[in-house]
Amino acid sequence: MSMVRNWSAGRVLALVVLLAATVISVFPFVWMVVGSTLNPNDVLRGNLMPGAEFASNWAKATKSYNLPLFFWNSLKIAILTVVFGLLVNGFAAYGFEKYPSKARDRVFNVLLLTLIIPQIALVIPMFRMFAFMRLLDSHAAIVLPSIMSVFIIFFMRQNFKMFPTEIIEAARADGAGELAIFLRIVTPSMQATYVSSAIYIFINQWNSYLWPLITILSDAKKTMPIAISSMMNAYTIEYGAIMVIVCISVLPVLILFLALQRQFVAGLLGSVK
Amino acid sequence: MKKRLSVAIAMALTLALVLGAVASCGSGPKMTDKVTVWCWDPNFNVYAMKQAAAVYNKANPGVTIEIVDMAQDIEAKIISGLQANGAGLPDVALFQDFRIEQFLTDYPNAFVDLKAEGVDYSQFAAYKVGPMTVGDKVYGIPFDTGSTGLWLRTDYIQAAGLNPDAYMGKNLTWSEVIELGEQVKAKTGKPLLAYQSDNFDMLRIVVQSTGGQFFKEDGSLNLRSDAFRKSLALFKELNDKGLLYQVVGWSDWINAINSDTSAGFLNAIWMVGSVKSRPENAGKYMVVPTPLIEGVAGAANASNNGGSSWYVFSSSKNKARAVDLLKSVWATATPENLEFYNTILKDAGAMGTFLPSQSGSNYTANDSFFYKGQALSRDFASWMANVPTLKYTPHYVPMRDAVAHATLNYFQGKIATIDDAIAAAEAEYKQVTGN
Predict the structure, then answer these.
(1) Which of B18, B41, B96 is the best mutation test for A, with the most CBs of A within 10 A?
(2) pLDDT at residue A113, rounded to an integer
(3) What's domain A61-269's superfamily in CATH?
(4) Does the interface predicted TM-score (ipTM) exceed 0.90?
């Protein structure tokens, strides 16, 4: 009996903690949705009851901004970064893990060290580089520097560690080429790793603000986060309209995550099929 | 085999990236007659510049004027461009008045001297020209005003048994305002002014109305002036008599003026949008001139908060055209241009600082949203001409923060006297700037 009571007390406590965590993480989303139906004064007042101003907020958000275009720009940039990012970082991680050499760990440590350099410190040198390459105001300027990611290389390398080297050696003995081994044998078993890397890269790029803000110089090339900050105007902030755009910009991340949740978690735990 | 494959992949990838890059900027430099303008609010300054472009295009149909709506952090972009010797910069950009002096100091050759290009600055509100002047060079074309007034709730004044008409349009002194505030507070319980205690704006408005400066000619701090002491003493008095409804943060302040917490506030013309966003405010507000601090030479019943101006970059490839756009539309009193100023006032609430424009029909029209249909634009425009010039200087921001902190501590009793508050502000300023 007492065991059951202990268990249920623990369970109640766990439920309370989980409930609190749920409220804390769900509340911003609720407020976001509710806020998109309120006028700016009510958003400021902290009103939590849905209002009737969604249509006027929608009109404000879409009147001066080409939202479908900004959405498409963001999507294009994020997808290109994911595709090139998986390719480049996948090769790099595989190389670092499965091709032993003396310099390997030294190079890798230098790469890891670059993680401590804050992005803001790189903005002006990078801006000058891209100005020199005549790539300012292009989506290439946003995609190119985000392809190589030390974090993703590190993360994928950790997962490649679990892939048995014996299989690679066996394939080599059977006469398979190195590229074929990587593409046909290694990659298919590392699906979960690739999926979680893809989600990570996508979310990172989808939300990226500072660098696109600096390099994008014309309306037609803007991305969603920049559109959101554009809603903070000269003398007023249209909170309702901002909430509308935020609602839209959360959608792809939400869909992507819900669709790939299982693989994402498996990838984080590290799995080889 | 292994090597050749990896080299091939590396080359293919590089090629793909380079091709993608080339394709995306393939529309390179076409030599058209084009002027690019950066500003940041589609319903305000972007709209105004679009109207100006339409006027300009009537006389110059072949010219393309591209107006880009930048996010708020436009300055970060401009700094990157200036650091890269003008790469990626537009021909014209809008700068906040309180920020421009730092740019003019840090990048002395980055902007075109428009006085040398023949702009007549006597046609603009004098206070706007101060921040854009360095020596005998003047760099900008003034855009909007932040002409200020004292916004009062007539319903609370009436509830206190007073007649709002006795105050309407009157040049009040601060002692008269304090007397009014005490009566309103006694009868209605409402403090007179909504006050954002972590913000410097209201104190700045008062100091500017005295004609005082925060800095001396040589750039050193000037907080021990009579004007500044009297302003700080006034704030302490308002605070001690319970006439300030204090909130922290801009959002809470906007919320305060729209939720009946106080009987008024001191701020600029552009608050009109926020006041009108709440239908219940209809008929209740009137705006009187910024009150006067007595006994300071050069003080006026006028001040300013906010505002920005247009600048041409020296790196512009179409400099003559950019200058012509600003000069021939924004700074020339033709009937079309005056109508343009009249239009942007009505449609965007943008009140220009070009003095000849004040005769426009939208300037003189009554506004039925305000108490007794006050012609709000006419009044703000007439006060604008009397605003004393304030030089912000490159160190405006650290000074602002230091004074705001000291004032807050003074109000909360952590600092005992005005002298100590000034000393604390000076010390913090010195710590941040090193001089």
Answers:
(1) B41
(2) 94
(3) MetI-like (1.10.3720.10)
(4) no
